[in-house]
Amino acid sequence: MSPPTRTAAPATGAGRAVVLVLSGSIFLEGLDLSMMGVALPSIRADLGLSTSALQWVVSAFVVGYAGFVLLGGRAADLFGRRRMFLLWTTVFLIFSGLGGIATEGWMLILARFVTGVAAAFMTPAGLSIITTTFEQGPRRNQALLVYAGMAAAGFSLGMVVGGVLTAVHWRWVFFAPVIMTALLLVVAVRAIPRQDAGPAGAGLRTFDLPGAATLTGTMVIVIFGLVRIHEVDAATSLLTFGLAAALGVAFVIIERRTRAPLIRFGILRSATVLRSNVAALLMLASFTAFQFVFVLYLQELRDWSPLQTGLALVVLGLDALIAPLVTPRLVARFGHPPVIITGLLLGAVGYGLLLPLEFDRSYGTMIPALLLLAVSFSFAYGPLTILATDDVAEREQGLAGGLVNTSFQFGAALGVAAATMISIAVAGIHPTEPAAQLAGYRAALVFPVAGVLVAAAVIATGLFRRDVSSAPTRR
Question: Quick one: which of 73, 285, 318, 411 could link to 374 by a disulfide (CB 3.0–4.6 Å)?
């Protein structure tokens, strides 16, 4: 199988156009997911969803994403990165629109799932376009930090934009991405060069659909089991998680026997790749758990409007400035692991400062925590993305990009599921009473603190190894 051809590093203008278009796509994806968090209370009121059903509006997207992103990375390597990016961006546009016209909860959840699947194909294609356009080194790192910075900005600014749009109507949280995606597609057709016809002989025979199906099934069942763990008896929970384990084993067997697996497990022998993916999963699990709980706290316990909630969270948008302007300088001087660890520890402090929630806590006392979370996200997200794809062969850049995005997105689904499980369990038999809700939200916020601390410990183990990819980039 012949490797895909690499084009020479593009001229400054062309290279900048590629980075800006693909950064726009990842910004849109983060925006799409994050906006949903602010709109959830309005969606619940309009469609009559329970808390456990409500979390599937978020989880359906991220499960679809996480379940198929490895297949998406493989598709980018086999069928052409540009082709996959444009095709699935179009699917993303269509199903975002369908979500906006949903009249039943199941219709909305289904549309969110397919939108997540579309994102699973377009994102690794976009990431691998960048990593195969720029040679490994300062230029690629700079491009990836801009790309990851825009992703981080999408996550944080999405809550602000979501608040503004939900103040009009929650359906605009779906319609706005349709308009933005259409504009992005027009520019992408012209900006992304035709340099990546996949390897000779690639085809559906090398497409691991059974692997994708068993992986997705495993994740869906794990999340379903977590959300319902407080509603069913122990035997039912054991049966649920046993089925997830069986599908997980089936996935491993399929991957070991298929000629073109979704995951070449050998890539996980790289300690750097493995650590980066574990930390990525925990970081996103922590952030989405915080977002889910904090938005419900502000809107359902404090009676803040979606617009007030979005404006209150505007502080998180500072990562859009910090990620491209500050993080690259710190990485160049200290290397990826120290910057990531610093970001994760700042996140632990930020989440910790939010733990003493009260019915009348002033917004001013929350600002320091939100500022720390903005810095945390900008320090950790981009360097983790680079670390997870660094020193990986070009022919497997799609796989490496898909792997880290799987970790990010499954982490997001796990975070929402864990926050839902903890808050409902602690609220007890009177989950609608304000005091019980507050107790549940406080307990759920312990999860983000623990998550980022464990992630920091995982990355810290790399400081005791001499990994080439951990060394600072010298200019």
Answer: 318
